[in-house]
Amino acid sequence: MTDRLRSRYLGLDLASPLVASPSPLTGSLDSLLRLEDAGVGAVVLPSLFEEEVEGEPLLLLERMEAGAGVVGEAAEYFPDVDLDHLGLDRHLVLVQEAASRLSVPVVASLNGTSPGGWVRYARELVDAGARALELNMYDVAADPARSSADVEGAYLTLVAEVCRSVDVPVAVKLSPYVTSLAHFAREVVGAGAAGLVLFNRFYQPDLDLVTLDVTARLELSRRGELRLPLRWIAILRPQLTSTSLALTSGVASGADVAKGLLAGADVVMSTSELLRSGPGRARGLLDELLAWMDEGEYADVDELRGSVAQHAASDPTAYERAQYQRVLASWHG
After folding, report:
1. Is the pLDDT assigned to residue 187 strictly greater than 80?
2. Are 141 and 202 within 8 A, CB to CB?
3. Quick check: 110 and 136 in contact, CB under 8 A?
C-alpha cells in the first residue's frame, strides 16, 4: 500500500483511510484476511448486542435443566452443553483470532444502552486483543416519561464509564436523531470519547400486508445516504479539531471516499458496497481514490483532508439552512 494513503484514526496508524465497518464480512477470519489483503486500514468487528449477553443465562439454564426429571438410573446424566456459539464467548474468540492474525488494527463494537455490565464486556474485549472500541448505541425512546435530557444523559454515563474502564481509545457511533447534534457531540467527547462515527444507520420495521405481521427487512445503503454524514462531518470538523471523525453510510466509490476526506473525516467506513461486491472491492475503492488524487494533484490524503470542511469551504453557509432554500429554488420542472 502506498504511503500516500497513510492515515491516523483514534491514535492508531493506518495504511489507508478505508475502514471495513461491522457486517457479516467482518465476522469471519477468512473475510477479515481478505479485507486486509485488499487494503483496508482497519476493521470493526460485528457488534456484541446487549440482548445476546442478557439472554445467555436463560439459555444456559435451559440447557442445564435438560436432564431434570430423568429416572434414577440416569442420575449421573448431565447434558453436553456447547457454549461456543454464545454471544460473548464467540466475540472474544473472534477478537483473539483477528488480533493474532491481522496486521491492521482490530476494533471491537459494543451495542448497548445501559452501563454496569458493559464495563466488564468492554474490558474483556480489550483483554482479548481489541486495539479500540466502538460504542454503537441504539435505543428507541418510546417512553413519553423519558425526556431527551434523560436519554442523552444515559448515553453520556455509559460513554464515561466505559472510557474510564479501558486503556484503549473509544469511538461512539452517533445517531442523527438528536435535537442539538453539535452540542451532544461535544458532550460525548467531553465524556471521554476519542472519536465519533457518523452515523448509526437504523433498520426500520415493515408490515406484511398478507400476514399482517411486523417484519424485519434488511436494505443496504444507497449512495444518496452519504449526504447526511458528509454535512455533519464538515460542520463538526472545525469544532472538534482533536477528535477522530469517521464517516459511514452511502460509500459506494472512491469518489465517495474522497468526499468524506474532503469534508474532514479521518477515515471513511464501508459496509454495503463491500457486501455487494465482496472484500476485494476495497482495493477498487482505494484505486479509484488514488486516481482522483492524481487528477487533482494531491500528494497524499493529508493534503486533501478537511479542505472543504465548513471553516475552509468557499461558501460555509451551504452546510446550513441557506442550502435548503437554494435547493428548492434550483427546481425548474
Report:
1. yes
2. no
3. yes
In this structure, CATH architecture of domain 3-329 = Alpha-Beta Barrel (3.20)
Query: Which has the closest alpha carbon to 129: 104, 111, 112?
Result: 104
Check residues 177 and 99 and name the one with the higher pLDDT.
99
Instruction: Give me the chain's average pLDDT, please.
Output: 85
- Cβ atoms of residues 198 and 230 within 8 Å: no
State the DSSP code for 306. Answer: T
What per-residue confidence (pLDDT) applies to 81?
Answer: 39
242: phi then psi, degrees, rounded to nearest 5: -105, 10
**Residue (of 89, 108, 88, 110) closest to 98 by Cα position:** 108
Q: Check the CA dihedral 222-224-225-230 and report its sign.
A: positive
Parallel, antiparallel or unpaired: strands 18-20 and 12-14:
unpaired
Residue 78: is the preceding peptide bond cis (ω within 30°)?
no
Give residue limits of the domains in the chain.
3-329
Contact criterion met (CB below 8 Å) for 261 and 296:
no
Question: The C-alpha cell of 308 is what?
Answer: 472543504
The answer to whether 192 touches 160, Cβ cutoff 8 Å, is: yes
What is the average per-residue pLDDT within 32-51? 93
Report DSSP letters for 123-148, one per residue. HHHHHTT-SEEEEE-------TTS-H
